[in-house]
Amino acid sequence: MRLLLSKLLNYFYLFGQNWRITWSDIWHDSGHRWLTIIDIILLVISWILAFLLAAVGRGSLLILHYNINFGIDLIGSANSIYWLPFGATVAVVVNSLLLQINYPAAKQLRLTSLAGSLEVLILINLALDSLLLINFC
User: Fold this and answer.
1) Nearest alpha-carbon partner for 81 in 93, 69, 65, 66
2) Which residues, in sequence order, are CB contacts of 50 under 8 Å at separation 6+?
3) What is the value of pTM for the model shown?
4) Structure confidence by residue, pLDDT tens digits, 10-22
5) Which of 4, 5, 2, 135 is nearest to 74 (CA)?
6) Sign of CA dihedral 20, 26, 30, 34
7) DSSP string spanning 46-83?
8) Residues near 107 by Cβ (< 8 Å), separated by ≥ 6?
9) Which residues share a beta bridge with 66?
């Protein structure tokens, strides 16, 4: 039992050290640093928009999807709006884990992963902005 616990603790220690080395390497490159900062800012903005939408629509139903051809497709509670920033958070965390797994790989792979997180966050923020416009304008 002690050997298993020791192996698990060693695994978590090595994982944390690898993650620290990866993010230290990313942070020292200015292009990767700016992509990371923009990702964090957009993630915070998406959570703020979700809280704003849920606070304004509290106690009533919100339009969650609007199709141009057919009109309103999906109506739901204001709390279901939190799925969009949660999905963005999961995408950013998964991409940061992929950065750590693919650390020995080329610099281009890290740049592609950070740019993918940026693209997901931009699309999530556009979806939240459009939901804000559809519901309250």
Assistant:
1) 65
2) 81, 82, 84, 85, 128
3) 0.77
4) 888 888 887 787 7
5) 135
6) negative
7) HHHHHHHHHHHTTTSEEEEEEETTTEEEEEEEGGGGGH
8) 29
9) 72
Contact indicator for 36, 26 with CB cutoff of 8 Å: yes
Q: Which two tokens stand for residue 86?
A: 């949660």
**β partners of residue 76:** 62
Tell me which amino acid residue 56 is: V
Secondary structure class of 106 (helix, strand, coil): coil
Type of residue at 93:
V
For the chain, the distance separating the N- and C-terminal CA atoms, rounded to the nearest angstrom, is 62
Q: Which of 82, 88, 76 shows the shortest CA–CA distance to 54?
A: 82
Q: Tell me the C-alpha to C-alpha distance, in Å, between residue 18 and each of 52, 55, 64, 126.
A: 37, 40, 40, 34
The tens digit of pLDDT for each residue in 88-102 reads 999 888 887 777 776
- If one counts every other C-beta atom within 10 angstroms of the C-beta of residue 105, the result is 12
pLDDT digits (tens, 9 = 90+) for 58-91: 777 777 777 777 777 777 777 788 888 998 999 8
